[in-house]
């Protein structure tokens, strides 16, 4: 599996291929903890936040919220303790970047968290890792102990009076716990239901205290931002979203893996056909889900010869989203009806059950998909699916509901044939299909 | 919430509303119908049913009005195509896995989902897939559960936690597999049944009423509970002269308790039509003989003759009259008149567990209503155990602490469950409650001694005092039966003792045990400190000597009889009005079948001082008569006409004329249970109580300092499940009193499964099983 | 109202929480303490402790284990239930020593996850969601485990096995069958 940078100097992935990259020793030899040193030596918390704002870093967890702004929301004067929580729940289908960051370069995450903690006046950081990644928790624990032994975690960090603890915490198999407020509930030992917003975590999060929740990749970007300076980091990417972005490529390409690209990498087609080694078995490209399962699926026709720019704006123009950077490539052999069914089953399994539309909606959707798959499809099923999605989208308590609806909506819109094929058996002649499917 | 007003536009209409008011409430108030399931006033917000969607200008997508608080200039649309589609969509989702067999569902006819479907349901059913299935089962002897019908509004889990503080029922599972339940599927709690009450669908059902009748077949009567002194308002559902169920659903009744009731109020009603109810008057013609059925005329005549004879022989005071805190004011007042006017005796009292006479004689502040408790800033609870003895008060306390930020101070000999909500818990020695009052009243010293007697640090009372001092709002003082007479007096004067403070107001909330405990005091049946109170116990002790005959409504409390078993047999003549045979009727010469609270009109006075209506819901069973009727018949037979003409309201008017607390009241003024009327407890203002205080100090000096503290938190239900004359008629209570054993197969009613030898009834299981 | 019930004979008191409470070795207790020490609120440690109890009690939260957790965390037994049933990795029923979990989600699916599941099922003679008669193997289909780039994949308890082929599966399973499989974590 490939792991490295294309079209830019590796930042996040600078060390991943060195052997012993997970050790403090290797990390330090390659500039590790220099950023923390610089911060503690002469930067005020506000300076740090200012740099992060300048860097135009946007959250890599999926929502893409400007990180500096998020940090700015934390009330400085609050007497309550403040917390930094790293979201390492990485459960978005097609996403596996955080995993390798933690496996190969755990200290980069620790350093990032410490800098964040310093900027936000926090004394404790938690790394919420999905339960299935137990081996990563062991790696992180080892790294934390190493760092503590070296005076980088705990009291008197680098002999300053900055003190901060870093703890690992395990999830136990629930995609919804990647949603930041559900994550906080889970971290408090409750069922992983999302919380009402407002209040936002920055104001009342973990144990009701101001809390910043950031994705692994977001936090690991922080040391480089300090080292290069916010402005320089931003320049690596686009004006609206700075730096580099990791893309976790899977599916029918010859070289799946984790790719570090500059934000705004200019051509998705080139990326697939050259950087990723082209399609396996030389088959034709059919569809791409560029940002993890929760985004619109793109047909090849929207990619080939379309110079799709790979950043937030570019992908929206192209009719999808960056999401979590889980880049799933599908060739002509894939039946989009099947792939959509597969994802819908995922969302049904992961719906937390709190709110009506998502709980009942995903259950219903799956039942319809299964019926169609049994060959009992009806002409108006596609319309039914679309209508159910419409009743979920924008009405659910948290975005998981929307995430369940979007793949279906885009699939039916972009690949009507794949659905038509399954609905035909029971359809009496093509005529009825018109009202069965949106006439495009 | 502030009183600041803001402008909100709802469907083009501009309104001035309180800033921060909840949008869903405001809209409904202003006449915009908004559907909802999970929203429930004064419970934690949930925002999960997604029914209450509205469109608010400048906000992305539809918003849930239950989570929005009003801000100035807000422009809201509650009805539009978009909104209606969303809401119809939601109902369609809720119905997807919900069985559509309303005719067989026990909630049919009063199901909120059903009603919602009429208003917001789609026309055609598009869900043609297989529905998820869970079997029906029992969660406890009184809670039946049909998980399939659950819409997961989680009202049940929230009332269990926030009202009852029990957290006994929770949601388990995930996604479409989420269900309401408990570990092991068996519900061990106080069995209040509030989860059943608030359930909008047929998911949680009253296992004792289920499949017995239909809501629309019931005639409903709004009345007052006849168990504890909280006086919850309830709706008695009866059919063909039989009480089928008791509920508090606010669509039927809307009293101080909202939809809240405890296990007794809700489930202990089967005693009313119980087969063991007394059917006719009974006469024991000669001592040692049998009680023999008789006609009313014979019985009345027999009693009249006997009482006449005994009065001539031994004098009026040899005849005692005893009322009851369980029966109506009308009945007790008739008894008082009977004693004073008909017999002319001073020997009268009521079978009250403890006297509040010293408290009322020194009362220097108003009684707190339950509403005022909810909004109190500080609550001081001395002794007592509301969660078992006055459950509604306990709920109000929890809500006050949880949602109102009130500070709760508990001074108790046992670590009662409410302790979890307490800002400060002072754990004292058994019997040292009086010392607590001394410590509170001790402006000058004496505090140390008291503290020593209670076995606590003097500093603990410093912080209690501190909490009281810094209170700028209402302080509600509650106390149980542990306080002595002088302690009650001192406590009733606490406001004067602690002195006035800006914005601070004292309110009192006594915690007597019975539905009409306050009433018997108001009426004067308990006597007063001058003439010296006459307790039932002292009467029994005089039996055979000064006291020759007793005429009483209801029976002696077991505690009173305990150790005085033979006293009753020493009486020449004993007349008892009762519902059932009891240890007291066993010695009676005449037993008169009385009507239960469901069979009579009248009033009870609760611990708010509210005079609340009791209404006849069914005709008296067998030959029973209301107590006040019986008394006036006897009076007539003895030559005095009370002039009631068989009309309870006449009886009440008569009482209101003579009882200061009820002056000016009439039934018409009491008819709306949502606007209860408080009796006038004048209060004496501040008076000199140095005498009482001194006596109290002395008494406290004498307290034993070695007594062990009680560290066990009492089991849930240790009082609620107690088997009494009334609850003893309800099989469920016996299961609960026996530790609520979990049946081997919860698919069938525990009552069917568990026989006295606890073996299973297989054949019954086969029927109910599938 | 059924009257055949005779009220006057009290029924035997029955245990409300599982009668037996699990006991653990000093090391395990210490391990739990280390987790509890991380949080200002005890309940926060519920998931880490559940994993430990599960590991020590034969792969699932048996009643004594649940009773222990409620006691150790100072919560009601039903609180354990509500949390345990929410998370898919907490087993409320026994599972085999070798819990074979094959990823079924898109990235794995389009490169042949079905074949892998199929193969495991045949070899073990059970369907997904079942446990072998001897109770040693449990086969599950699980959602995306973050090995999309190295698909298809499966997890045995916590161990990742990636870029699977039927042959590779056979290798792994046979070491399990011979009880020579060593858990990596
Ligand atoms: C259903 C759902 C699942 C999510 N899963 C993840 C996740 O696995 N990892 C993650 O970092 N963020 C996830 N997020 C996004 C988080 O809610 C949150 O936006 C993010 O952790 C914030 O960090 P960032 O600003 O660094 O992106 C998820 C959001 C939703 C609605
Ligand atoms: S949309 Fe609703 S049910 Fe789905 S995960 Fe979010 S809160 Fe839970
Ligand atoms: S009432 Fe607002 S979401 Fe249920």
Explain the layout of strands and helices.
The complex is a heterotrimer of chains A (440), B (770) and C (185).
Chain A lengths: L1 E4 L18 H6 L4 H9 L2 H10 L12 H6 L10 E6 L8 H8 L1 H15 L3 E6 L4 H16 L15 E6 L9 H8 L23 E5 H13 L1 H7 L7 E8 L5 E6 L5 H8 L9 E5 L8 E2 L12 H6 L8 E6 L4 H15 L5 H21 L4 H12 L7 H15 L1 H8 L6 H7 L4
Parallel strand pairs in A: 1-7, 2-3, 2-5, 3-4, 6-10
Antiparallel strand pairs in A: 6-7, 8-9, 8-10
Helix pairs in contact in A: 2-6, 2-9, 3-6, 3-10, 5-6, 6-9, 9-10, 13-14, 13-16, 14-15, 14-16, 15-16, 16-17
Chain B lengths: L4 E6 L2 E6 L4 H7 L23 E4 L6 E2 L9 E4 L3 H16 L15 H9 L16 E2 L4 E3 L9 H9 L6 E3 L6 E3 L12 H5 L5 E3 L12 E6 L8 E7 L2 E6 L15 H5 L14 E2 L8 E2 L2 H19 L4 E5 L5 H15 L4 E3 L6 H6 L7 H5 L3 E5 L3 H4 L1 H14 L2 E6 L11 E4 L5 H9 L5 H8 L3 H12 L4 E6 L5 H8 L1 H5 L6 E6 L6 H7 L12 H7 L6 E5 L4 H4 L11 E6 L11 E4 L8 E4 L4 E5 L12 H11 L10 H11 L18 E2 L11 H12 L29 H7 L12 H4 L8 H8 L1
Parallel strand pairs in B: 1-5, 16-17, 16-23, 18-19, 18-21, 19-20, 21-22, 23-24, 24-25
Antiparallel strand pairs in B: 1-2, 3-4, 3-5, 6-7, 7-10, 8-9, 11-12, 12-13, 14-15, 14-25, 26-27, 27-28
Helix pairs in contact in B: 2-3, 7-21, 8-21, 8-22, 13-14, 13-16, 13-23, 16-23
Chain C lengths: L25 H11 L9 H11 L6 H11 L3 H8 L13 E6 L2 H4 L3 H12 L12 E6 L11 E3 L2 E3 L4 H12 L8
Parallel strand pairs in C: 1-2
Antiparallel strand pairs in C: 1-3, 3-4
Helix pairs in contact in C: 2-3, 3-4, 6-7
The complex binds flavin mononucleotide (FMN), iron/sulfur cluster (SF4) and FE2/S2 (inorganic) cluster.
Written overview of the protein:
- The complex is a heterotrimer of chains A (440), B (770) and C (185).
- Chain A contains 18 helices and ten strands.
- With 440 residues, chain A is an alpha/beta fold.
- In chain A, the strands form two sheets. In chain A, strands 1-7-6-10-8-9 form a six-stranded mixed beta sheet, covered by helices on one side. In chain A, strands 4-3-2-5 form a four-stranded parallel beta sheet, sandwiched between helices.
- Chain B contains 26 helices and 28 strands.
- In chain B, strand 6 (137-138) and strand 7 (143-145) form a beta hairpin.
- By secondary structure, chain C is of the alpha+beta class.
- Chain C has helices spanning 26-36, 46-56, 63-73, 77-84, 106-109, 113-124, 166-177, and strands at residues 98-103, 137-142, 154-156, 159-161.
- A four-stranded mixed beta sheet of chain C has the order 2-1-3-4, covered by helices on one side.
- The radius of gyration of chain C is 21 Å and the shape is elongated.
- The N and C termini of chain C lie far apart (58 Å).
- The model of chain C is unreliable at 1-15 (pLDDT under 50).
- Chains A and C meet through helix 7, strand 4, strand 6, strand 10 and helix 13 of A and helix 2 and helix 5 of C.
């Amino acid at each position: 599996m490939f792991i490295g940078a294309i079209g830019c100097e590796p930042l996040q992935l600078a060390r991943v291929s060195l052997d012993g990259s997970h050790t403090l020793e290797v990390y330090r030899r390659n500039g590790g903890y220099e950023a923390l040193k610089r911060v503690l030596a002469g930067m005020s918390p506000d300076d740090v936040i200012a740099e992060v704002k300048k860097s135009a870093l946007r959250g890599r967890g999926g929502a893409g919220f400007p990180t500096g702004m998020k940090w700015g929301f934390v009330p400085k004067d609050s007497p309550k303790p403040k917390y930094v929580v790293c979201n390492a729940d990485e459960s978005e289908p097609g996403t596996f970047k955080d995993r390798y960051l933690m496996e190969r370069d755990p200290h980069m995450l620790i350093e990032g968290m410490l800098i964040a903690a310093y900027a936000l006046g926090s004394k404790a950081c938690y790394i919420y890792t999905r339960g299935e990644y137990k081996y990563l928790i062991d790696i992180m624990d080892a790294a934390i102990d190493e760092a503590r032994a070296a005076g980088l975690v705990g009291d008197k960090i680098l002999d300053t009076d900055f003190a901060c603890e870093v703890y690992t915490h395990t999830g136990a198999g629930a995609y919804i716990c990647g949603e930041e407020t559900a994550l906080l509930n889970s971290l408090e030992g409750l069922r992983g239901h999302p919380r009402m917003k407002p209040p936002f975590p920055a104001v009342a999060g973990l144990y009701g205290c101001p809390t910043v929740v950031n994705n692994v990749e977001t936090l690991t970007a922080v040391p480089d931002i300090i080292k290069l300076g916010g402005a320089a980091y931003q320049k690596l990417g686009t004006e609206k979203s700075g730096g580099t972005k990791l893309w976790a490529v899977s599916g029918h390409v010859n070289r799946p893996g984790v790719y570090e690209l500059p934000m705004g990498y200019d051509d998705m087609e080139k990326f697939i056909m050259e950087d990723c080694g082209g399609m396996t078995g030389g088959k034709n490209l059919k569809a791409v889900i560029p940002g993890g399962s929760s985004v619109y699926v793109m047909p090849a026709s929207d990619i080939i010869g379309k110079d799709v720019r790979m950043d937030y704006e570019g992908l929206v123009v192209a009719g999808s989203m960056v999401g979590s950077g889980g880049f799933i490539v599908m060739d002509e052999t894939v039946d989009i009806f099947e792939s959509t069914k597969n994802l819908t089953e995922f969302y049904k399994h992961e719906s937390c059950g709190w709110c009506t539309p998502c709980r009942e909606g995903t259950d219903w959707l799956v039942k319809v998909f299964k019926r169609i798959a049994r060959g009992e499809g009806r002409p108006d099923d596609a319309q039914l699916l679309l209508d159910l999605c419409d009743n979920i989208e924008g009405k659910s308590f948290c975005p998981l509901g929307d995430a369940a609806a979007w793949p279906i909506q885009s699939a039916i819109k972009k690949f009507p044939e794949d659905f038509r094929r399954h609905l035909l058996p029971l359809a009496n002649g093509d005529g009825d299909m018109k009202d069965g499917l949106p006439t495009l | 919430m502030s009183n600041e007003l803001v402008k909100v536009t709802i469907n083009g209409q501009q309104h001035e509303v309180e800033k921060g008011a909840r949008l869903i409430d405001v809209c409904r108030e202003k006449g915009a119908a908004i559907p909802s399931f999970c929203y429930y006033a004064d419970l934690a917000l949930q925002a999960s049913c997604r029914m209450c969607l509205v469109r608010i200008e400048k906000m992305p997508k539809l918003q849930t009005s239950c989570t929005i608080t009003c801000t100035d200039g807000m422009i809201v649309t509650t009805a539009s195509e978009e909104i209606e589609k969303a809401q119809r969509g939601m109902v369609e989702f809720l119905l997807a896995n919900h069985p559509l067999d309303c005719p067989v569902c026990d909630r049919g006819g009063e199901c909120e989902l059903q009603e919602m479907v009429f208003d917001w349901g789609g026309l055609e059913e598009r869900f043609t897939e297989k529905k998820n299935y869970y079997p029906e089962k029992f969660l406890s002897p009184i809670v039946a559960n049909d998980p399939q019908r659950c819409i997961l509004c989680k009202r049940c889990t929230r009332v269990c936690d926030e009202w009852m503080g029990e957290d006994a029922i929770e949601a388990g599972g995930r996604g479409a597999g989420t269900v309401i339940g408990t570990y092991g599927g068996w519900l061990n709690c106080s069995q209040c049944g509030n989860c059943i009450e608030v359930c909008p669908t047929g998911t949680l059902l009253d296992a004792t009423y289920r499949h017995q009748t239909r809501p629309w077949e019931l005639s409903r009567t709004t009345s007052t509970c006849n168990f504890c002194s909280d006086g919850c308002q309830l709706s008695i559902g009866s059919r063909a002269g039989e009480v089928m169920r008791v509920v508090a659903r606010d669509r039927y009744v809307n009293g101080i308790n909202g939809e809240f009731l405890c296990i007794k109020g809700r489930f202990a009603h089967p005693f009313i039509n119980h087969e063991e109810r007394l059917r006719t008057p009974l006469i024991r013609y000669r001592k040692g003989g049998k009680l023999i059925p008789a006609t009313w005329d014979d019985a009345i005549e027999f009693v009249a003759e006997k009482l006449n004879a005994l009065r001539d022989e031994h004098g009026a005071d040899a005849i005692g009259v005893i009322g009851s805190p369980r029966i109506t004011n009308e009945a007790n007042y008739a008894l008082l008149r009977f004693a004073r006017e008909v017999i002319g005796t001073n020997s009268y009292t009521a079978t009250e567990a403890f006297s509040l006479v010293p408290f009322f004689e020194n009362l220097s502040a108003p009684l707190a209503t339950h509403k005022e408790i909810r909004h109190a800033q500080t609550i001081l609870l001395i002794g007592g155990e509301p969660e078992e003895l006055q459950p509604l008060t306990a709920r109000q306390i929890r809500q006050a602490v949880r949602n109102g930020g009130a500070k709760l101070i508990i001074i108790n000999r046992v670590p009662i469950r409410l302790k979890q909500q307490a800002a400060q818990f002072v754990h004292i020695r058994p019997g040292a409650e009086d010392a607590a009052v001394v410590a509170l009243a001790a402006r000058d010293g004496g505090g140390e001694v008291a503290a020593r007697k209670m076995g606590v640090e003097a500093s603990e009372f410093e912080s209690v005092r501190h909490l009281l001092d810094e209170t700028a709002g209402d302080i509600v003082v509650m106390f149980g039966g542990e306080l002595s007479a002088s302690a009650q007096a001192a406590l009733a004067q606490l406001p004067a003792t602690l002195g006035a403070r800006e914005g601070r107001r004292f309110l009192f909330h006594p915690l007597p045990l019975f539905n009409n405990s306050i009433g018997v005091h108001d009426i004067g049946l308990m006597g007063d400190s001058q003439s010296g109170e006459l307790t039932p116990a002292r009467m029994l002790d005089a039996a055979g000597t000064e006291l020759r005959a007793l005429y009483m409504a209801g029976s002696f409390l077991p505690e009173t009889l305990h150790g005085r078993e033979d006293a009753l047999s020493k009486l020449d003549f004993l007349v008892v009005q009762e519902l059932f045979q009891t240890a007291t009727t066993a010695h009676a010469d005449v037993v008169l079948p009385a009507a239960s609270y469901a069979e009579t009109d009248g009033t009870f006075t609760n611990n708010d001082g509210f005079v609340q209506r009791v209404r006849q819901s069914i005709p008296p069973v067998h030959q029973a008569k209301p107590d006040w009727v019986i008394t006036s018949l006897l009076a007539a037979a003895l030559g005095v006409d009370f002039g009631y003409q068989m009309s309870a309201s006449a009886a009440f008017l008569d009482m209101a004329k003579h009882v200061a607390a009820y002056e000016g009241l009439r039934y018409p003024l009491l008819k709306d249970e949502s606007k209860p009327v408080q009796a006038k407890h004048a209060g004496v203002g501040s008076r000199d109580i140095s005498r009482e205080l001194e006596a109290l100090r002395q008494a406290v000096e004498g307290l034993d300092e070695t007594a062990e503290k009680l560290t066990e938190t009492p089991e849930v239900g240790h009082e609620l499940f107690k088997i009494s004359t009334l609850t003893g008629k309800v099989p469920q209570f016996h299961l609960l009193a026996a530790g609520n054993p979990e049946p081997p197969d919860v698919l069938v009613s525990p009552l069917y499964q568990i026989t006295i030898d606890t073996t299973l009834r297989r054949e019954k299981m086969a029927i109910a099983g599938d | 109202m059924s009257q055949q019930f005779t009220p006057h004979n009290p029924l035997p008191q029955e245990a409300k929480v599982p009668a037996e409470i699990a006991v653990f070795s000093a090391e395990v207790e210490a391990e739990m303490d280390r987790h509890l020490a991380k949080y200002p609120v005890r309940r926060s440690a519920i998931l880490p402790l559940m994993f430990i109890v599960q590991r020590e009690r034969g792969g699932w939260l048996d009643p004594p284990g649940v009773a222990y957790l409620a006691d150790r965390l100072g919560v009601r037994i039903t609180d354990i239930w509500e949390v345990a049933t929410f998370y898919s990795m907490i087993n409320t029923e026994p599972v085999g020593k070798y819990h074979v979990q094959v990823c079924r989600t898109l990235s794995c699916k389009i490169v042949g996850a079905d074949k892998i599941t199929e193969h495991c099922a045949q070899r073990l003679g059970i369907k997904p969601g079942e446990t072998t008669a001897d109770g040693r193997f449990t086969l599950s289909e699980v959602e995306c485990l973050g090995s999309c780039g190295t698909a298809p994949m499966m997890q045995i308890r916590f161990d990742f096995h990636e870029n699977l082929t039927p042959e590779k599966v056979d290798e792994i399973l046979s070491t399990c069958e011979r009880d020579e499989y060593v858990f990596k974590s």
